[in-house]
Amino acid sequence: MAEPGNEFPTKPQWRKQLRAARRARTAEQWASEAATLTHTLLNSNVIAEARTLGCYLPMPDEPGSVAMLDALRTAGKRLLLPVVQGEQLDWVAYTGSDALTTGAFGLAEPTGERLGTEALGAAEVVLVPALAVDRNGTRLGKGKGFYDRALRFASSDAVFIVLVRDEELVTRLPAEPHDVTMDWAVTPGRGLIKVG
In which residues is ATP bound (predicted)? Predict the structure, then answer.
C-alpha cells in the first residue's frame, strides 16, 4: 500500500486502493455481505436498545442494502436517512423503499418531510458509511466531509457504528482534528467489533 519512501499511506492513497478493491466485488458478494451485516445488526444489543437510528442508503459499492433498512424498520426502529442539502445533510424519516427518489449526485434519497440537520440528535445509534475504519475508531470517508459535518449534530451519547468489509478494518488510518471517532465496526466476517 505504501509508496517507496512513504511508510504510511495518505488518505488519497487509501481511498484509491479501497475504491479499486470495492469495484472488484460482484453484486452477489455485496448482497451476501449485506445479508450478514443485517443479521449481525438485528442481533446486537446496541441496536436492540435503540429506538431511533441514523442510517444511510448504501450505494452499490457500499456495505449494507435497502433490505437491511427495511429489516431494521420491520424490527420497530425509526430510521432517519440523509438528504444532501448544499454542503449539509438534512434528515427524513424512512417509510419504506417505495418512498425513495433520485436526489443530489444521482443518489437515492427518501421522500418526505425534511426534519433539518439537527434531527440527527434524536438518534441513539448512527450507522455511518466509510471506506475504512481503524482500531482507534478513525473513519475514512469518501472525502467530501458530509458525515464529519453531520455527526456534530448527533447526541453526545449517540453510538456511532461504521459498516465495512473485513479488510477495511485496519490497524491505523491518517487522522485529523475534525474526524469523529467511531464506537463500533461491523464486518461480515468478524461481526460487531469495539473500536475507538
Answer: 11-15, 139-147
DSSP-assigned letters across all residues of 179-190: PPPPSEEEETTT
Q: Is 94 annotated as a binding residue?
A: no
Angle between helices 27-42 and 66-74 (to 10 degrees): 20
pLDDT < 50 positions in the chain: 1-6
Assign residue 30 a region: left if phi > 0, alpha if psi is -120 to 50, beta otherwise?
A: alpha
CB 90 within 8 A of CB 83: yes
Q: Is 140 annotated for ligand binding? A: yes
CB 133 within 8 A of CB 193: no
Q: Is 12 annotated as a binding residue?
A: yes
Instruction: Map out the domains of the chain with their CATH numbers.
Output: 11-194 (3.40.50.10420)
